[in-house]
Amino acid sequence: MSTVVRVAFLWHMHQPSYRDPLAGAFAMPWVRLHALKDYYGMVRILGETPSVKLTFNLVPSLIDQVLAYASGEAHERLLEVSLKPAAALTEDDKLAALRGLFMAHRQNLIGRFPRFVELIKKRGESAEPAALRPAAERFSEQDYRDLQVVSRLAWFDLEWQREDARVRGLIDKGRGFSEEDKQLLAERERALLQAIVPAYREAAERGQVELSTTPYYHPILPLLCDSSAHHEAHPGAPLPRRYRHPEDAADQIQRAVARHTALFGRPPAGMWPSEGSVSEEAATEIARAGLVWTASDEGVLERSSQRPIHRDSRGTAYPLDVLYRPWLRKTAAGELKLLFRDRALSDLIGFSYAGLEPERAAHDMLERLRRIGDRWQEQGLSGSPVVAVILDGENCWEYYRDGGRVFLRALYRGIQDDQRLAGVTMREAAETAPAAELPRVFAGSWINADFSVWIGHADDRRAWELLGEARDALARALLEKSVPEDALLRAQEIFRAACGSDWCWWYGEDHSSENDLEFDRLFRRHLIALYHEIQMAPPEALRETLITTRRVSESHHSRPTGGVRPTIDGVLTTPEEWVAAGVYRAAHGGATHRGLPELRAIRFGVGDEHLNLMVEASAPARSLLQSGDLIVNFPGPTTLRYRVQSSNGQTQIRRSERMGIGWVASPTWAKAAAGEVLELAIPVAELRPSPGRSVCFRILMEQGAIELSRHPETGPIEVGLEEVTRD
Q1: CA 49, 55, 61: angle at the middle one, nearest 5?
Q2: Quick one: pLDDT band at residue 551, thresholds 50, 70, 90?
Q3: Residue 319 DSSP SS3
Q4: pLDDT tens column, 246-284
Q5: Measuring CA to CA, which of 112, 370, 455, 620 is 20 to 30 A from 284?
Q6: 39 and 151 fall within a common domain
Q7: Main-chain phi, psi angles of 442, to 5 degrees
Q8: Domain extent for 305
């Protein structure tokens, strides 16, 4: 009788919390795009192999975002650009479309649609602003409309494409789309998004799928419990000011369990902790919440059990009865079963098989699983081996031909048709094989069995210190009840989101992407929003990027080429008056505050003993000032601010200087006028320039006491004063 290998797949579904707490919009589109492409089809295809069971791990903050899109409540810049009538697209919209709507795998997503390929060739390879502006002129109205449609069709779930005749009709049409076609696609997208949560609920109710959860906003539990947990793997490593709040970990766990129960009608039995991060304290809090299993990586198992794991030439892990079994930890809050992922098998799916023919890749995985059973039987071990294969359930599939569906179908069929293999849920895997007792739970994650990614770099540690300071401020506000209760509740929720693991993932040298600045900005804006809710001024450190490992810039600017002497009247009086000015162009495609026009460009130069500035927005500058205040901020050597406001149709400018007691009003001879553009002239003498005769400035936008944006964000504009002339 052959040994049956119990294979426990866990697909971890997660995206960061992209909602900007100040702007209210989603800063990046990845929840929507992955929801369209992966979440429905991943559970849908399981119905074809009913005897194969597995586990989907659904992060509560992800599901909240999916539901926000499904209800139409979510606002996101790229979505709005893709839905706007092509004839009404502004220059900003066009640049955002040309940058954002091509963010897709070149071969497997763009390459499936000839019109999409044609459009990216017309745009060109570069997404830099300097390249996009001439590309925007090359695109016709029909080009933009076709881009709006094919860019969304490319992400559309393959199962739904085949089954939905209306979507199939759009794909067959291929080009020349109408505004009615766009509305039809939007309606079908909404239908797909609304089908996701019911599809998982139905699969769980029929018993084929176990649904597990993760702490609500995907924090690193051991570091919430005690940041010195990093010293288990790296004794003596630098740490931030100690963060020790196991109650925060418990809160994230308990809220996840409650939200999961409300959504799916039953509490989860288990939890995949964020990034497989566990420790003694974290395991105790998981058990305290009534969960019966959790999981991590084989590297954590090695260090917890003090039994090294080695592999043969085919990747089978030895000793077999170390990795391929459940473990039991008796915590202070009760017993907890632990399963540990086979790193080699998990990584083959996540990183290697996409380069193979899908049927061949599935055959290889099945052979590796059978081999574990053969070796188990040869060694005369009792019971059955349990193999945990745990990885992201979304990010790898765009690298597979046909979104991984051919591979997954072949894999599931192979398991269903082979009596030597059985697909089981994580709970079944934990309960149907004898568990060995684990002497302790080593503090580590699925990456190198440590937490270096999240706390090992100086930028990470600065983030933790800022998080701790914000928590202390929130705790004082809760104790003193100094602000309204609804504001305190909002501040608490914002703080929970700021604890997410994804912010520190992008700090340091470990990982980098073209969206590093957006993640850094979102983390800081969460903490800024928290301070605003509790009516405290945010630390100035939160206004600047925390990224020190590389130069980050969201835009480029040119220097003035000569003297600039405009008429300050709010209109472009002559083409020549700003022709010699330097130009800063703002980035496009990020989150914007709803109702506030986007700042597009700042022109600057010096003439007649004045620093002259001109601000262009996506709407007339007079409407920009109706939505908020514009501030010209000079960070030094004397810290000054010029606040421009609109009152009764008149443009007013006020000057203030930073003193020890705060901002103090001071007289000014500056002038400002808002019309189609905003023009300002600030006397150089008021700026008290440095001996090198240069000044640095930024433009800020505020509503009330809330800073909504700053330009540039990653460093001020420096202006030399050589062009100052006297009358």
Answers
A1: 130
A2: low
A3: coil
A4: 999 999 999 999 999 999 999 999 999 999 999 999 999
A5: 455
A6: yes
A7: -70, 140
A8: 5-15+245-251+267-437
